[in-house]
Amino acid sequence: MKGRQTTITILMADDDDDDCMLAREALTESHLPNHLHIVKDGEELMDYLYQRGRYTDANISPRPGLILLDLNMPKKDGREALREIKAHPQLRKIPVIVLTTSKAEEDILRTYDLGANSFIIKPVTFAALVEVIKTIGKYWFEIVELPL
Description:
With about 150 residues, the chain is α/β, with parallel strands linked by helices. It is built from five helices and five strands. The chain has a single domain (about 25-140), classed as Response regulator (Rossmann fold, 3-Layer(aba) Sandwich). Strands 2-1-3-4-5 form a five-stranded parallel β-sheet, with helices on both faces. Helix 3 links the parallel strand 3 and strand 4. The protein is globular, with a radius of gyration of 14 Å. The mean pLDDT is about 85.
């Protein structure tokens, strides 16, 4: 197996402060070598990815190796942001994991049609979230090869 990055930048787009705090704690608990950056809506997500506005400094907002995307956010929802990401020649290479409370079959089908790499329903307990994060880390950062 090839050598792995020592630190992975994960970009989480979610407007729920509690979910963001729990994800940060779950990442810490799962001992993944990462930097978590959080944006609160789809517009802020796209600003980060295009390095616009307050995200112009690449040292403060490095290109993510993985995006965790909630579907239901203000301004620009996750579906719209996903469509834009997967239509862009450079951004489409970044794996996008939809991490949402939605269980709607329509959302599952639509996000895969838009190019999502995975669809995960947010776990209810912190312990289950830690397990999901560990599994994401194992798969995306130890097993598969990500584009640079």
